[in-house]
Amino acid sequence: MISVNDFKTGLTIEVEGDLFTVQDFQHVKPGKGAAFVRSKLKNLRNGNTVERTFRAGENVGRAHIDNREMQYLYASGNEHTFMDTETFDQISLEQDQLKWELNFLIENMMIKIMSFQGEILGINLPKSVELKVVETEPGIKGNTAQGATKNAKVETGLNVQVPLFINEGDVLLIDTDDGKYISRA
């Protein structure tokens, strides 16, 4: 058990049988009444974000999530297969478990599989990934207003807003949290 007073961003907790990651929290001490902790929690099973208020000093269960490093092998229909590089065990995840993550997965990529007591919750991507541009229109000379961008499609099918100097074949660094361009790799 852990006290809500000890919340930290990224902490994994168990509340009423569901697993949550603390995304944000705020300790509130009103002038009248008891103190409380307002928190923003992400459900690890379905991806929903909820806001929840706890009384100060209330205890919640701490969930220990296992993160195993695995390699993405291939997609077959709606299943995506991953392999543990030490034991060579393979697991498959359904496409609906990887909605956002599929924008960044390329074959042979190393990722971390999150599991709780044998139940696979999903995957953790690296903070940024390198993806190759497969389609973009050429930058027009003279079209250089400050912050000008154009659309580019990368090898996974994700569309990204990029600066005008990016061309087909360039390798880009993309942020996996919001899918935005960071820089050329």
Automatic annotation (TrEMBL):
Pfam families given in the database record: EFP, EFP_N, Elong-fact-P_C
Annotated metabolic or biological route of this protein: Protein biosynthesis; polypeptide chain elongation
InterPro entries documented for this protein: Elong-fact-P_C (IPR015365), NA-bd_OB-fold (IPR012340), Rib_uL2_dom2 (IPR014722), Transl_elong_fac_P/YeiP (IPR020599), Transl_elong_KOW-like (IPR013185), Transl_elong_P/YeiP_cen (IPR001059), Transl_elong_P/YeiP_CS (IPR013852), Transl_elongation_fac_P (IPR011768)
Domain (Elongation factor P C-terminal) ranges: 129-184
Domain Translation elongation factor P/YeiP central, residue spans: 67-121
Listed SMART domains: EFP, Elong-fact-P_C
Taxonomy, superkingdom: Bacteria
Gene Ontology annotations for the cellular component aspect, listed alphabetically: cytosol
Main location (coarse class): cytoplasm
This protein's UniProt keywords: Cytoplasm, Elongation factor, Protein biosynthesis
Localisation: Cytoplasm
Biological processes per GO annotation: peptide biosynthetic process
Gene Ontology terms for molecular function: translation elongation factor activity
CDD domains listed in its UniProt record: S1_EF-P_repeat_1 (cd04470), S1_EF-P_repeat_2 (cd05794)
Family under the similarity heading: Belongs to the elongation factor P family.
Role noted for this protein: Involved in peptide bond synthesis. Stimulates efficient translation and peptide-bond synthesis on native or reconstituted 70S ribosomes in vitro. Probably functions indirectly by altering the affinity of the ribosome for aminoacyl-tRNA, thus increasing their reactivity as acceptors for peptidyl transferase.
Name of the protein in question: Elongation factor P
Gene that specifies this protein: efp
